[in-house]
Design a protein that fits this description.
single chain, mainly beta, eight-stranded mixed beta sheet, 6 helices, 9% helix
């Protein structure tokens, strides 16, 4: 079976189509809620200063990220002044502009013809500019948006009609004709200075919010094994306020350091088969991150969610794992406790958690028919029943996973395997600065097949410890964690005991 299926449409591009493709916008979307937009701005400049208006930006453009240049290097461009208008024309904005002036209101009364009433706009309704508010921090943005939504005092208009004040609009406002200063879309106004006259296509690049992408994986197992068939999707969400026609789209995966305003006021491997169609998404390492490129231009409409399949792998070996972590600890209760405080509490870690975790584990390797960097995303597991129908069996999140790394995810609690943990001894010696503690762990398997359970114990009393007695060998996972492995027969039971000595 082909490990990773590649498909797509091969297009024969004429010179005209190629030129159109080169002029189409480019997007690199980051999985942290922002994107880099690359666009082409046709310019016809005279030597010296030029006033230019560009009306095809996003509503969430970050003005201080704008880069404008001549890609051919023949013209020196300098932005002497830049103004970003992210507030396209709306009724609320016009009311704010006519504050203190008299305008007409169209009043409709039941059973009577409409009437024009003149009113002086003493105070316009509160106008919220979401893009601008975000620049002052998330908390301020949410507060102002809530005030606007729930109609606080500032959100109420004051209109004087016939010498009387009212806290509402008397009717539908009617405005004079638009001025040349009005903008219908988010707009960049520039004063550009150049050293030589000429007509050319400038390259524009900027950072914008309102765009994101994420990965999702569907993993299907047959009824009688844990072999996985994996389909991975990328989901792109465009809330930027602009539609991108035939855009060349890239997706950047990784933890890129991006300051928020409130913080700072290779191809996919084919697995065989030559001559197949190209993959819909290719991947390559880029700096400290990974860049995924959609091979075909795609139109991404404003307020649209688009999905593209980027990986399909079959016959991926996986392993079902059972883990028993029997110490039930209320992390919130002990938040802020020092190690000394935890060490001295005799009751710490003595409550029992009976649940045994069910987990899935597989290796992201070429030998396992994968071997591509997998971006962070949600894994959904399914299994086919005896009737051939799919049933959902759990889901979880994975972080960015490089090639040849192991993926282990919790999918739920085992129904037919339970645990029981109790402390059987505790002795503290202040004279010798030591504590001795003993535990008994029982596991019961109600399945009709043998089961291996990994028993994880946290030696949380102190950093210096020694297991003095044990009923089974263990593996040291880290400085304060050990793991036993218990083999349980069908309908069988196993008991693990151990003694630990702490000293300081």
């Amino acid at each position: 079976m082909e490990a990773i299926r590649r498909y797509g449409t091969v297009l024969a591009l004429t010179m005209t189509a190629q030129a159109s493709l080169n002029a189409s916008p480019g997007l690199t979307i980051y999985n942290q809620g922002f994107a880099v937009v690359r666009d082409t701005v046709p310019l016809d400049l005279k030597a010296g200063a030029n006033e230019i208006r560009f009306t095809d930006t996003t509503a969430h453009l970050e003005p201080d990220s704008v880069i404008l240049r001549d890609p051919a290097g023949k013209h020196r461009l300098q932005i002497i002044e830049q103004n970003f208008r992210g507030d396209p024309l709306s009724e609320g904005l016009l009311l704010a502009q006519y504050e203190g002036k008299v305008i007409d209101f169209l009043v409709a009364r039941q059973g009577q013809p409409p009437e024009i009433v003149k009113g002086k706009l003493i105070r316009a309704p509160y106008v919220v500019h979401p893009t601008g508010l975000r620049r002052y921090g998330q908390e301020y943005y949410q507060t102002q948006m809530a005030r606007a939504q729930w109609g606080t005092v500032e959100n109420s208009p004051i209109v004087e009609v016939n010498g009387q004040l009212r806290f509402s609009l008397p009717g539908q406002p009617i405005f004079p004709p638009l001025t040349d200063d009005a903008v219908l879309k988010p707009t960049l106004d520039w004063i550009l200075e150049t050293d030589a006259a000429g007509k050319f296509d400038a390259e524009l690049a900027y950072v914008t919010g309102g765009m994101s992408w994420e990965a999702d994986y569907n993993l299907v197992s047959p009824a009688d094994s844990d072999t996985l068939d994996i389909v991975g999707w990328v989901t792109m969400d465009n809330q930027s306020g602009r539609t991108f026609e035939n855009a060349r789209i890239k997706l950047m995966a990784g933890d890129v350091n991006k300051l928020r305003r409130d913080d700072s006021i290779s191809f996919l491997r084919s697995g065989g088969g030559a001559g197949g169609p190209p993959p819909p998404v290719t991947e390559q390492a880029f700096d400290e991150y990974h860049l995924y490129t959609l091979e075909r231009p795609s139109t991404l409409h404003d307020r649209e969610t688009k999905q593209v399949e980027f990986v399909r792998a079959g016959g991926v070996p996986s392993q079902r794992i059972y883990v028993y972590d029997g110490a039930k600890i209320d992390r919130q209760r002990y938040q802020g406790y020092s190690m000394e405080s935890i060490r001295d509490r005799s009751d710490y870690g003595t409550e029992c958690n009976p649940k045994v975790w069910a987990m899935k584990e597989f290796v992201n390797s070429t030998a396992n028919h994968l071997g591509i960097p997998l971006p962070r995303g949600q894994l959904r597991f399914y299994r086919r029943g005896d009737d051939g129908l799919l049933e959902f069996t759990g889901e979880n999140i994975i972080d960015h996973t490089p090639v040849d790394e192991k993926i282990r995810v919790y999918t739920g609690n085992a129904f037919d395997v339970v645990g029981e943990r109790r402390r059987t001894g505790f002795r503290r010696s202040d004279q010798h600065n030591a504590i001795d503690e003993s535990f008994e762990i029982k596991l019961r398997n109600h399945k009709k097949e043998p089961t291996v359970v990994r028993v994880v114990e946290h030696l949380y009393r102190w950093y210096t410890w020694e297991v003095t007695e044990k009923s089974l060998p263990f593996e040291k996972l880290d400085s304060q964690t050990i793991e036993f492995r218990a083999n349980l027969l069908p309908d069988g039971e196993a008991t693990i005991t151990y003694d630990v000595h702490y000293s300081w």
